[in-house]
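Exercise: predict the fold of this chain.
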Amino acid sequence: RYTLGTTTAYQIESDTYWKFKKQGYGYFNAAYSDNSILPNYRIRAEVFQNYKRWEYSMGAGIIKPHNFREIPLITGTIGYYFSDYFVYARPSFSYVDNGFTKSIFIQGRKYFTKTNFIALSLLKGADTGVNRNINAVANSFGSDVYLVRANGQMKTGTIKLGAGLDYGGIWIPEAGEYARYIGVDLFVNLEF
């Protein structure tokens, strides 16, 4: 669920992870919303590799805002595990009508178990909506945005539960200021 001004929008999203070798795994994400403040759909795939305490990835995707053509993007990560923490950076590049856009997403996680954690994230740049559980606002593509996010997840048996809170802004050139927004999301994942 996302709120921009007085408008509230909902998005359905699905994530799939698969392990293809001891130190590597893949990820596929698809999302849909019928509300115009969120993308109509988003599809993304990424391959991750671990090496000692490092993790890195490469991925690609397509975002389709309402009343706008598809936006291709490429992304990746580089991260480092130490003690009970994981810190990573994710640059993203996309192409919109007026050229290439870029953004940087940085996240720090504190793990309590192998799957249970809390996290703090920062996003700055052109919103591409590729960051896990961060939903791009459809009219922000290619615009300057900022975002601060606190979230966490816990797993019990085959069920994973999570929640997040976002606070951010989208630069509106006509107004000469950022339009601020707040987002809340809850998720339930079933492992099988």
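Check your answer against the key: The two ends are 26 Å apart (CA to CA).
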